[in-house]
Amino acid sequence: MSEHAPEEQWTAVDDYLTGLLAPADEALTAALADSEAAGLPHINVAPNQGKFLHLIARIQGARRILEIGTLGGYSTIWLARALPADGVLVTLEYDPRHAEVARGNLARAGLDKIAEVRVGPALDSLPGIAADHPEPFDLVFIDADKANNAHYVEWALRLTRPGSVIVVDNVVRGGRVTDDSGTAPDIRGTRDALRLIADHPKLDGTAVQTVGVKGYDGFALARVLPDRRPSLDLTRHQTSW
């Protein structure tokens, strides 16, 4: 029987996996340090989670990525590094102070020409994204205010194509996701998003609970499917001559 508390064991395993498979470099270390110095909340993804996002983008062959929730740009760096030289990443951040830190971190990492940070409530920014970026996104990463998770998934569907991937972070909420009372906005928004992924005919997804240096949580992963509405068979309406 382990003599360590579960949280200590989770952190030890994460530290081992990160050191082995997702080691830090100067830009990533500086991004965390500048976020800490600016007083940003410690809610960025863990390094091995950042590497996971990077690999998802690489496996997807993503050329265009939308991130909802920038914070200090740590996950943005991981995602942007997966893009080709002519790739595009748009990331949305509510807090101007957070966005300023993120822009500095992206510039230091040499990614400011690929990644664009837009400031303001995401639900206000997304219509502009739709107007300015008519080409669909290949990957959407949602890691913002949880009360609006379902709305963000709906927007992700509008801004993607069949074959695109949507990742929603922090969907387990320390196990509170099973609370169906509807009293907590973050739980209600997360459950609505999961229900949308389950029920929408253009989404096929799952969710996984995780433990690690960031505690007990999880993520949802969904793939955008082709439109399942039956197409009109024009051959049945052709006239023979």
How is the secondary structure organized here?
Elements: H1 6-21, H2 26-37, H3 47-60, E1 64-68, H4 74-80, E2 88-93, H5 96-108, E3 115-119, H6 122-132, E4 137-142, H7 149-158, E5 160-169, H8 185-199, E6 203-212, E7 215-224
Parallel strand pairs: 1-2, 1-4, 2-3, 4-5
Antiparallel strand pairs: 5-7, 6-7
Helix pairs in contact: 2-5, 3-4, 6-7, 7-8
Task: Give structural notes.
The chain has helices at 6-21, 26-37, 47-60, 74-80, 96-108, 122-132, 149-158, 185-199, and strands at 64-68, 88-93, 115-119, 137-142, 160-169, 203-212, 215-224. The chain is an alpha/beta fold. It has a 7-stranded mixed beta sheet with strand order 3-2-1-4-5-7-6, sandwiched between helices. Helix 2 packs antiparallel against helix 5 (96-108) and helix 6 runs parallel beside helix 7 (149-158).
Unreliable runs, pLDDT <50, ≥5 residues? 234-241
Largest sheet: 7 strands, mixed
State the total count of DSSP E strands.
7
Q: Helix fraction?
A: 40-55%
Average residue-wise pLDDT = 94
Strand order of the largest sheet: 3-2-1-4-5-7-6
Q: Look up the CATH topology.
A: Rossmann fold
Highest-level CATH class: Alpha Beta
Radius of gyration: 20 Å
The number of helical segments is 8
Order of helices and strands: HHHEHEHEHEHEHEE
CATH architecture name = 3-Layer(aba) Sandwich
Please, what is the CATH homologous superfamily? Vaccinia Virus protein VP39
What is the terminal separation in angstroms?
83 Å
- The multimeric state of the shown protein is single chain
SSE-based structural type: alpha/beta
Strand content: 15-25%
Question: What's the number of domains?
Answer: 1
Which overall shape is indicated by the principal axes computed on the Cα atoms? Answer: globular
